[in-house]
Amino acid sequence: MGNNFNANLNGENTSRKVKVTDFTFLYIVGKGGFGRVWKGELKNTRQIYAIKEMMKSRIINKKSVHSVLNERKLLSIIKHPFIVNMEYAWQDTNNLYLAMDYVSGGDLRYHLMRTEKFTEAQTKFFVACIVTGLEYIHLHGIIHRDIKPENLVLDSKGYIRITDFGIAKIISPGLEKESSGTPGYMAPEVMCKKMHGPGVDFFALGVIAYEFMMGYRPYWGRNRRELKDMVLSHQAQIKRKDIPEGWSLEAADFINKLLQRKPEERLGFNGPQEVKNHQWLRDCNWKDLFSKKLPAPFKPRKKEDNFDRWAQIDWNDDVDSKTFNSSLQDLFEGFAFDPRKVAVCEEITQQISPLR
């Protein structure tokens, strides 16, 4: 399985290419560091997608060519029901485009801002969904490195999907030189530029679960330096007296074990099954969860989209009218993606799912 995974990392199937005119761009639903996210429709099938439009000039100015191409490569070899999957990738003179699964429920930050906290049952369901997605990518040697509420989106049934693989990496020597991630969710070993692995995603999961329980994150600071000092000097822990009404001791224990600063002492150090076997999650029906047969305890509003936090943004400020320097086009060679290669990914998915 591992050999197939690596062999297809750079493989290209160029027998079919899509272009901008194959899609109808309906309206904007999000904004990223390099451009915008559209709700779009593939004209010949009427299938709806989330289309990331990224300006090449911005990507180069932010020295992020490697990051963007890395995300494209990783998305081309993974496909899973708990991940926002890529279906098409293409480019024109000025922009790169990724057509992704369209997930209409909004991200968890959007909903957390409106509810302030989630219940234990809701949090438990969210955590189980996230663990299911993390198990898949970790078994394929990938760590996400930016698990946070903004990168966890709800489908219409209330199930979580993981998105944004911009700083995800295949575990390999050299990771100790990097400290990528979002302050507040970043594991200590990443902050200190030490070699890191799947445990960084479980630490972030602990921060999220803590935030859902308590209504705030376990660590804070006015800047990255203050936050790092707090993480390194203080072990976050939910004490019995601090457990909110309606929450169990098992939930607090689960979160505390995920937040361990030393990776070898952290829940999940010995693999995702260790997380799934914790007492708090033992009653989860993983098979029915994977098949999305379980009723979700939290569902997004029954409207077409849950993205109205973007409504007040002036999108005209996001348009770059400059023509991209054609001499740099070679930097993005091979960006196009043919969906027929997904068949390989689906075969791999079936080999490890449904989860026990």
Automatic annotation (TrEMBL):
Single Gene Ontology BP annotation: intracellular signal transduction
Superkingdom, taxonomy of origin: Eukaryota
Molecular-function annotations in GO: ATP binding; protein serine/threonine kinase activity
Top EC class for this record: transferase
Protein kinase domain segment(s): 23-281
Residues the entry annotates as binding ATP: K52
Reaction(s) catalysed (UniProt annotation): L-seryl-[protein] + ATP = O-phospho-L-seryl-[protein] + ADP + H(+); L-threonyl-[protein] + ATP = O-phospho-L-threonyl-[protein] + ADP + H(+)
Gene3D superfamilies: Phosphorylase Kinase, domain 1 (3.30.200.20), Transferase(Phosphotransferase) domain 1 (1.10.510.10)
Pfam family, one: Pkinase
Stated family: Belongs to the protein kinase superfamily.
Protein name: non-specific serine/threonine protein kinase
Organism: Blepharisma stoltei
